[in-house]
Amino acid sequence: MTSFRYCLSALLLASLSTSFAQIRWGLRAGVSSSTAATELVPVSTYTPLPGLQAGVVVDIPLSEILSIQPVLLFASKGFERSSFFEDNVNPLDQPYGTAALRIETVKPYYLKIPVLILVKAPLTQEVKLYMGLGPYVGTLIGGTVLYDYKSVYSKGPLSPSRNSFYARSDAGLTGATGVELMDRFQLGIAYDYGLMNVTSDPLRYSLRNRTVSLSLSVFL
Q1: Rounded CA gap, 191 and 159, in Å?
Q2: Which residues belong to any copy of the Outer membrane protein beta-barrel domain (predicted)?
Q3: Domain boundaries in the chain?
């Protein structure tokens, strides 16, 4: 019985050592296009903004075709919002009124962690097609806000303490697809579908992040 326990323990240790040895670490960098979905009455238009992503990726194989892939990313998101506001003018002087355009450019910076379950299908000996889905969470670490109202510009930092309308956290789902080359490179496209309202004042309106990204991962 004791010999059986020793053999079983040795087998378990060998399996854990093999699984740990198969874990891959790498670097990821990419570009993105972000905007926001809103439930606000449509008096504003939202234009996507370009952004950057960079971080560390881990690939944990569960089988030959299945793996778990957590990623730690610095990610810039944001949007450009254009709104018209009525000028405060005397209606007797201008009975039809006037409206001025205000452009608000919001660029939040997040520390984001998506965790995807990947399914891989080999196309050739060195090329695999993969698809993945999983949750992501993010925390706001900074950013900028730029206002353009009547060609008067003002710019300031974006933080939960200074900009009370922007929340500290973000969360949602990430879907991804791409190709893996020679078990070392991954070229993929991903879509973040934000589920959390990133405004701190949900009684006024809600904003949810939407991001498309293109990235390259290199495993070391």
Answers
A1: 25
A2: 20-199
A3: 23-219
Inter-CA distances, 1 with 4, 6, 8, 11, 173, Å: 5, 9, 11, 15, 49
Q: What are phi and psi of 16, to 5 degrees?
A: -65, -40
Q: Indicate if the pLDDT at residue 127 is higher than 80.
A: yes
Collapsing DSSP states into helix, strand and coil, what is residue 8?
helix
Check residue 168 and give its pLDDT: 87
Asked if residues 51 and 35 have their Cβ atoms less than 8 Å apart, the reply is: no
- Architecture of the domain delimited by 23-219: Beta Barrel (2.40)
- Identify the helix (H) or strand (E) that includes residue 46: strand 44-47
The string of pLDDT tens digits covering residues 62-88 is: 988 999 999 999 999 988 887 665 555
